Amino acid sequence: MTKRYGENVAVEALDLAVAQGEFVSLLGPSGCGKTTTLQMIAGFVELSAGEIRLEGSDLQRVKPSRRGLGIVFQSYALFPHVTAAENVAFGLEMRGLPPAECRARVREMLALVGLEALADRHPRRMSGGQQQRVALARALAIRPRVLLLDEPLSNLDAKLREEMQIELRQIQRELATTTVLVTHDQAEAMALSDRIVVMNGGRVEQVGAPEEVYERPASAFVSQFLGKTNEFAAERLPEGACPLPAGPATISVRPERIVFAGPDAPGLPARVRARIFQGNHFLFQCETACGPALVISPNSGADLPAEGEAVRLAWRPEHMFVRRGGAAR
After folding, report:
1. What is the CATH T-level fold of the domain 229-324, as seen in this structure?
2. How far apart are CA 26 and CA 180, in angstroms?
3. Helix H or strand E segment including 253
4. What DSSP letter does each residue of 60-120 carry, written as one string?
5. Which residues contact 213 (CB under 8 A, 6 or more apart)?
6. What is the dihedral of CA 320, 321, 326, 329, to 10 degrees?
């Protein structure tokens, strides 16, 4: 599917099939087209070209309210003047569910998200995490064919966001609800997804399982956007530092894959410019003849280099990714 605004292409020829029960994340920076893609699926934005099909049906012929999709917005979009239970019941009442069945479904959904004790509380008296749970329960109450999540955890603090990631994934697996998440948070996408769709400038850069996209990035953008990475022009690496490919190539190595080798061991000569303590690990900023390099070492109690110390950086051949052609950027 494609979406254009005049001469500006917001989404260019996105072609993606999502399996029943799969959790897929659309990941990328602001303006990459991920939210526009979600809005096209929801029916809030009209396609410029292409189609969207759900279980064989053309969704473009169906009004947004009748697509059977559950949506959780970044702002949660709860009704502030009614209780949590009444918020969850809203979609069921709009579909004409009998009152007794509606009440039972509301209890079931609030129990699923751990809020049965807060059924009569208004959103304004709830924490951000509790509001997020209510929004999720409301979206799931209608038993949607697809659950759409638009940056639903971005307003939470870091600790609560991690907790909610675990809960969200457990709920999604329990219900086997097909889910599409929009996020700019790389860690969130990797923690939640069966597959990640990395987008940039309206186009798909790579689609794959989190481990695949992280360990084998298809482009410089994916390598640099999905976590920290080091990129070295192969022709600038010293002989013996690592197995070198023939011809122009870029060597990509994640910081946690690099170790400090002994003074006589093969490796890339470097000097530690900064050593930064980050709790369970140390982050080292190093200078090399091939440019700056980052190294992440676990806080295991082992002796680690000091600032200003000369070191050698080494990595196993299977931990580097070779991209043919072009210098490192």
Report:
1. OB fold (Dihydrolipoamide Acetyltransferase, E2P) (2.40.50)
2. 7
3. strand 249-253
4. GGS-GGGS-EEEE-TT----TTS-HHHHHHHHHHHTT--HHHHHHHHHHHHHHTT-GGGTT
5. 196, 198, 206, 207, 222, 226
6. -70
- Print pLDDT tens along the chain (329 aa): 999 998 899 999 999 999 999 999 999 999 999 999 999 999 999 999 999 999 888 888 888 888 889 999 888 788 899 999 999 999 899 888 899 999 999 999 999 999 999 999 999 999 888 998 899 999 999 999 999 999 888 878 888 888 888 889 999 999 999 999 999 999 999 999 999 999 999 999 999 999 999 988 888 899 889 888 999 988 888 877 777 777 788 889 999 999 999 877 888 999 999 999 999 999 999 999 999 999 999 999 889 999 999 999 999 988 888 887 654 43
Which sequence spans correspond to the domains of the chain?
3-224, 229-324
Identify the CATH number of the domain defined by range 3-224: 3.40.50.300
Tokens, residue 61: 């012929």
Residue type, 32: C
3-state secondary structure of 143: coil
Token digits of residue 79: 């009704």
Residue 194 φ then ψ, to 5°? -80, -40
